[in-house]
């Protein structure tokens, strides 16, 4: 059964954000997509802190997390997600341009569920993001958070 929980897209590049949203639409993924444009904003959504203090924490179906982010990078965001019992089991997919072996190793060491390099080709990017959404929202079984 498809999840009705939102997707948290943590992406600072406006072009990649627009392509991701287009990919979800193309693949008929109707879940709300919440965009955080840096690591601080992502953590504020997840923990109802900072500018979102007093609001309900966000418990997305999946987090698509870029690594190269302003203010707090993606690896630190992942570290904080896994360190908190409320978010420790949330699926986190690293979606980044980084091909650095060190980034891949560290992402998995910190508990990433998957590490995907963003394709450069427009159509490949659309298909990759669409397939990610379809898998994590319809096929994956969620742990209770």
Describe the structure.
The modification 4-aspartylphosphate is found at residue 66. Residues 6-133 form the Response regulatory domain. This is Response regulator. The mean pLDDT is 90. This protein has helices at residues 14-26, 39-47, 74-83, 101-109, 122-139, and strands at residues 7-10, 33-36, 62-65, 92-96, 114-117. Strands 2-1-3-4-5 form a five-stranded parallel sheet, sandwiched between helices. By secondary structure, it is α/β, with parallel strands linked by helices. It has a single domain (7-138), classed as Response regulator (Rossmann fold, 3-Layer(aba) Sandwich). The radius of gyration is 14 Å and the shape is globular. The chain contains five helices and five strands.
Outline type: globular
Report the radius of gyration as a whole number of Å: 14 Å
Order of helices and strands: EHEHEHEHEH
Give the structural class.
alpha/beta
Query: How many structural units, i.e. domains?
Result: 1
- Order of adjacent strands in the largest pleated sheet: 2-1-3-4-5
CATH fold-type name: Rossmann fold
Tell me the name of the CATH class: Alpha Beta
Low-confidence stretches: none
Mean pLDDT: 90
CATH architecture: 3-Layer(aba) Sandwich
Oligomer: single chain
Number of helices: 5
> How much β-strand is present in the residues?
5-15%
């Amino acid at each position: 059964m498809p999840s009705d929980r939102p997707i948290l897209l943590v992406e600072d590049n406006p072009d990649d954000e627009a392509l991701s949203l287009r990919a979800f639409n193309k693949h008929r993924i109707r879940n709300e997509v919440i965009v955080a444009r840096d690591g601080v904003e992502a953590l504020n959504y997840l923990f109802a802190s900072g500018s979102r203090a007093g609001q309900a924490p966000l418990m997305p179906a999946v987090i698509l997390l870029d690594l190269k982010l302003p203010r707090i990078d993606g690896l630190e965001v992942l570290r904080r997600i896994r360190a908190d019992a409320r978010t420790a089991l949330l699926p986190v997919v690293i979606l980044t341009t980084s091909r650095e072996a060190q980034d891949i190793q560290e992402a998995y060491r910190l508990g990433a569920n998957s590490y995907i390099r963003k394709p450069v080709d427009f159509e490949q990017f659309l298909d990759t993001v669409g397939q990610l959404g379809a898998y994590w929202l319809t096929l994956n079984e969620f742990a209770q958070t």
